[in-house]
Amino acid sequence: MVGIRAASSWFAFLPLVLVVAAGGGVSFLGEKKVLVLRPRFQLEVTKTSEKCLPQRSRRVAGATILEVKQQGRKDATWKVLAGDNARVRSLQSRLGNTVANRAEAAPSEARLPLNSGAKVQTQNYIVTIELAGKQMTVIVDTGSDLTWVQCVPCKSCYSQEDPLFDPAASPSYQPIPCNTSTCDSLRAATGISGVCGSDRPSCNYELSYGDGSYTNGVLARDSISLASVSVEGFVFGCGRSNGGMFGGTSGLMGLGRAQLSLISQTTPRFGGVFSYCLPTQEFDSSGSLILGSAYDTFKNLTPVVFTNMLPDSSSYFLNLTGMSIGGVALQDQFSTKVLIDSGTVITRLAPSVYKLVKDEFLRQFSGFPPAPDFSILDTCFDLAGYKEVSIPNIRFAFQGDAEVEVDVSGVLYLVKQDASQACLAFASLAYEDEVGIIGNYQQKNLRVVYDTVGSRLGFAEENCGYS
Ligand SMILES: *[C@@H]1O[C@H](CO)[C@@H](O)[C@H](O)[C@H]1NC(C)=O
Ligand SMILES: *[C@@H]1O[C@H](CO)[C@@H](O)[C@H](O)[C@H]1NC(C)=O
């Protein structure tokens, strides 16, 4: 949990956060917005309870709303981006791009200050659910399917905040037998078929996230509760051997498109629709994960515009048809398949597209002293001397005239707290044929609606807030 120190030491270790001052702090200068750069809060993160204070939830008028928070805000920046690169490489290989080996030698990788054995971190968003009546804080991931928590007896578990889930204490817990169609559905969800346990006919799963994170255990059913809506017989992984980038959470909520994902399993209840609004890093900011299509509970500032998901049922792919920088459309409009992912931080674009974005951004955001590249980010500025800067708006256009503007907090990535190294928060893929990814840094303060039944994805601007 994040606490604030007494006022006397307020300015001791000020992280400079990107603050969009409320109530008129954002001025519209044509196609630019002002980003206020000023020290704001001292975040004091204590080791023991930094991440997982239970997130709130509520039900209103047919909507099931879970509070979303960001986890691990004090992670070293390079670790976040190192973890991000590992995730992107593993996504690419999963998406059938056999470039994992080439990517190993890519220049962007070589520049990473990755200590071997260093624990990489991601910038994750978390929610709290109940499993058999026990609170579990889990990472929200649209890039994978299986929901799992750490379970006793544990062969090897990382340390988590909440007590471990104990199947023996839940009368409604049922292991799933192997040689069942539910066990077979693991293949689509994890890429690896379930296997029979050696001593009993339970269905054992293995799931590896390719960045070194993994969970292995037993597939089981129990009741879960999402903002007090209970779902009986929910299929999840009871993880007996888990490790990697999960911080102090109890596990992960898989919101992908496979049959085992939470969203597929709850389709009778929520209609296969969910949406989220990811908060900025400002202290105590929170967002929401809304299950169901209760559009009237969104606080969107602009209408929700929809684009079709590409007909590939494995993930959330969209057809990116153009971009504009400061109102200037990139000269070569393009049509490219991109993945939208809640777990990747920085948006990745094909090298040719990235070059257009970078060149146009540099043309418009000129006159600022340059700063060294940082990891995968190669367009950096020294903004230490500025209280505020006006930055060109960046817009994505998707098939079907769905345009969405990146929030002003999602354009620059502050590597240094004093803004002396502020980088354009977009990166190039290593190869032209890799799949682009819309990362979570560019999804902040947007309502992103996943309609898995209608096979469409919607965007609207929103100031994220739980309450
Ligand atoms: C699962 O099915 C295979 C092949 O039909 C069989 O050999 C095996 O004994 C079964 N396992 C269990 C635990 O039922
Ligand atoms: C993407 O959109 C463009 C423009 O509407 C269209 O020409 C192209 O066929 C679409 N690509 C896919 C894969 O649907």
Task: Give a verbal description of the structure.
Residues 125-460 form the Peptidase A1 domain. Belongs to the peptidase A1 family. GO terms for molecular function: aspartic-type endopeptidase activity. With 467 residues, this protein is mainly beta. The chain folds into three domains: 2-45, no CATH class; 61-75 and 121-290, Acid Proteases (Cathepsin D, subunit A, domain 1); 300-461, Cathepsin D, subunit A, domain 1 (Beta Barrel), CATH 2.40.70.10. 12% of the residues lie in helices and 35% in strands. The protein has eight helices and 34 strands. Strands 8-9-16-10-15-14 form a six-stranded mixed beta barrel. Strands 20, 21, 22, 27, 28 and 32 form a six-stranded mixed beta sheet that branches. Strands 2, 3, 4 and 26 form a four-stranded antiparallel beta sheet that branches. Bound molecules: 2-acetamido-2-deoxy-beta-D-glucopyranose (NAG) (2 copies). One 2-acetamido-2-deoxy-beta-D-glucopyranose binds at residues 310, 319, 321, 335, 399.
Please provide a brief summary of the model.
GO terms for molecular function: aspartic-type endopeptidase activity. This protein has 467 residues and is mainly β. The chain has a six-stranded mixed barrel with strand order 8-9-16-10-15-14. Strands 20, 21, 22, 27, 28 and 32 form a six-stranded mixed sheet that branches.
